[in-house]
Amino acid sequence: MRRLLVTGGAGFIGSNFVHHVISNSDDHVTVLDKLTYAGNRSSLDGIPDDRLTFVQGDIADAALVDELFRSADAVVHYAAESHNDNSLHDPRPFLDTNIIGTYTLLEAARRHGTRLHHISTDEVYGDLELDDPDRFTESTPYNPSSPYSSTKAGSDLLVRAWVRSFGVRATISNCSNNYGPYQHVEKFIPRQITNVVRGIRPKLYGAGENVRDWIHADDHSSAVLRILEAGEIGETYLIGADGERNNKEVVELILTLMGQDAAAYDHVTDRAGHDLRYAIDSTKLRTELGWAPRYSDFEAGLAATIDWYRTHEDWWAPSKDGVEAFYASKGQ
Ligand code: NAD
Ligand code: TDX
After folding, report:
1. Which residue, among 56, 307, 303, 37, has the nearest Cα to 185 in the 3D structure?
2. Measured between alpha carbons, how far is residue 263 from residues 83, 244, 248, 253, 259 in Å?
């Protein structure tokens, strides 16, 4: 039995990973999560007490982090401020958590010699033209656009420096856009699904031609577990499932799957600095570590996600009105 420490384990992707580990290993998991507006303890419901310890706290709290590293065999670091639109409104928490928080974990990993896997995003690479035949690879230069993505890029660079200068045993993964259950309603897909449930028209930024490379959160989790088990220290792995779609197509598909007119959405104010296209080439992960995604059918995965939001209104309803009020104040 391994003792895993998972930061941000009450968030969308972190909680998915915790459930994945509990189902696919006999590891014990300790979650360290601050329970910001984005964290939800109930996303971990159903896990037996003898498999999970939940600690509410901040990854930038050096004393707490040091104590938790003492009894961890490996750490998987998901905790972050994760929403681009929030970072345009108030960047400070992004610096505190994504930069100082990651630094705090790296210093503990250095002191204790702990294996660390750092979760990052494809947004560190900036964006691609719609007709660019190339996709992001592990050697694409960093070129982040937003306060969010620049703090994620900064955290990746800290990890690389701590590997090289201090011998910290770390790996990094950069994944494309995730979808699935338990995603906060501020994000694109859950926002539109819950809008339709509430009788509000979906909101598309600008013309809606921006492309995202969608992957189911379960596939992200299986990739991270594979990297934790077989990844080479110091290496970066891109995670993606060949799921490119533009935002207009996704909104129209949500409306159709929910029995509405596919044109029943509004165009709203575009996001400042809005990245045009992300696309991941995950050849390295697939060939070197033998990983493959399970969800090849985006429409089926989206339909199951819609069902989940329809049947879990108690999970998302407390956040919905506040999120919509925030967007309304921005004309979005
Ligand atoms: P999320 O916003 O749903 O969850 C973040 C979690 O971190 C929350 O539970 C929150 O309470 C916790 N947290 C925030 N600040 C903290 C702090 N200072 N100390 C302890 N806990 C703190 O985010 P998500 O979408 O699940 O993303 C998780 C990770 O995956 C992030 O590092 C993000 O950059 C990365 N990522 C996300 C996507 C995506 O599509 N959502 C894609 C690629 C990478
Ligand atoms: O209401 C909306 N309308 C809209 O058109 C919202 C909320 C978003 N959008 C657009 C903006 C993006 O082009 O949809 C796309 C997806 O938006 P988000 O869900 O905010 O995701 P994105 O900005 O692409 O970032 C996501 O993927 C990479 C995650 O939030 C990040 O944490 C991750 O690093």
Report:
1. 37
2. 27, 21, 10, 10, 12
Work out the end-to-end distance of the chain between its first and last CA atoms, rounded to an integer number of angstroms: 48
Domains and CATH numbers, the chain: 3-178+215-239 (3.40.50.720)
Active site residues: 122-123, 148
The confidence score (pLDDT) of residue 1 equals 83
Tokens of 26: 């006999």
**d(C-alpha 174, C-alpha 163), whole Å:** 17
Q: What's the pLDDT tens digit per position in 34-90?
A: 999 999 999 999 999 999 999 999 999 999 999 999 999 999 999 999 999 999 999
Which DSSP string corresponds to 279-314?
A: -B--HHHHHHH----S---HHHHHHHHHHHHHH-HH
Helix (H) or strand (E) segment spanning residue 117? strand 115-121
Question: How does strand 211-213 pair with strand 244-246?
Answer: antiparallel
Q: Amino acid identity, residue 91?
A: P
For the Cβ of 6 lying below 6 angstroms from any atom of ligand 1, the answer is: no
Binning the chain into helix, strand and coil, the percentages to the nearest 5 are 45, 15, 40
What ligand 1 atom has the least distance to the C-alpha of 177? 40
Q: Which of 191, 212, 253 to mutate to test the pocket of ligand 2 (most atoms within 8 A of CB)?
A: 212
As beta bridge partners, residue 305 has none
How much is the pLDDT for 113? 98
Q: Is the pLDDT of residue 184 over 90?
A: yes
pLDDT digit string (tens) for 238-276?
A: 999 999 999 999 999 999 999 999 999 999 999 999 999
Q: Which two tokens stand for residue 234?
A: 């110091």
Q: Which residue in this structure is represented by tokens 């694409």?
A: 140
- Between strands 170-175 and 115-121, the pairing is parallel
CA distances from 55 to 52, 64, 110, 183 (A): 10, 10, 22, 21
Which of 78, 98, 121, 177 has the most ligand 2 atoms within 8 A of CB, as the residue to mutate? Answer: 177
Those residues with Cβ within 8 angstroms of residue 283's Cβ, 6 or more apart along the chain or in another chain: 137
Cβ within 8 Å of residue 261, ≥6 positions away: 255
